[in-house]
Amino acid sequence: MNKNNLFESRRPLIAILRGIKPLEAESVSDVLIEAGISIIEVPLNSPQPFETIERMVKFHGENGVFGAGTVLTEYDVYRVQEVGGKIIVSPNLNTLVIKKTKELNMYSIPGVFTATECFDALDSGADALKFFPASLLKEENFKALNAVLPENTISIAVGGISENTFPSWLKVNINGFGLGSNLYKPGMLVEEIKLKAENIVKFYDNCVRS
User: Is 58 a catalytic residue?
Assistant: First the structure.
C-alpha cells in the first residue's frame, strides 16, 4: 500500500467503535458509510472484535476500509488479516507489529507521542502516525514535531477529538482524525450515531472548504 492510499479517495476521518458488538456491525457501519465516514476501526478490547470486523467486511466489501485498533501483538495482526481487515491501529509503538502489518500488506497506524517514536515508526514502515492522546499533546506541540518529520508523513490526531477541535488541528496541518466516544458509545441508538456522523462530516467539510 502506498503512503497516501487510505485517504486518497476517502475522507480522513476514522470511526473508532470501542465496545461495539457483532450484532451491531452491519447497522452501525452502514450509517457511518452513508454519512461519509468509510474508514472504520474496531478496537480489540471490544466484545468479539474479529467477528465484528468480518461481518463489516462481508457486508460492505470495498465500500469501506475496516480494521482493528488496540492491536498489541503480531498474532493480532495476523488474525485481523484473516477476517479481511486492512488497517492496524495501535495505542503504542511496537516495531514488530508494524513490520508484521506491512509483511501482510496492510495499512499500519501506530501510536506515537515523541520525535523518537515518530522516526522509529516511519523507519519500521508505518503508513501514518497516530498522535495519541492528542488532547495531551496539544496543537502547538504537534506543530513543533511536524516541522521535523518527512514532508509526506500522514498524521492523525486521536484522543479527545471532536468536531469542535478540527479547526485548530487543521491549522497546524494535521491530516486526519480518529473519532471515538464523541461519535460512538456502546448502547447508542443507530439514529443517534447517524445524526452525529452527518454533523461531523458536514462540519469537517466546511472546515476544509473555508
Answer: no
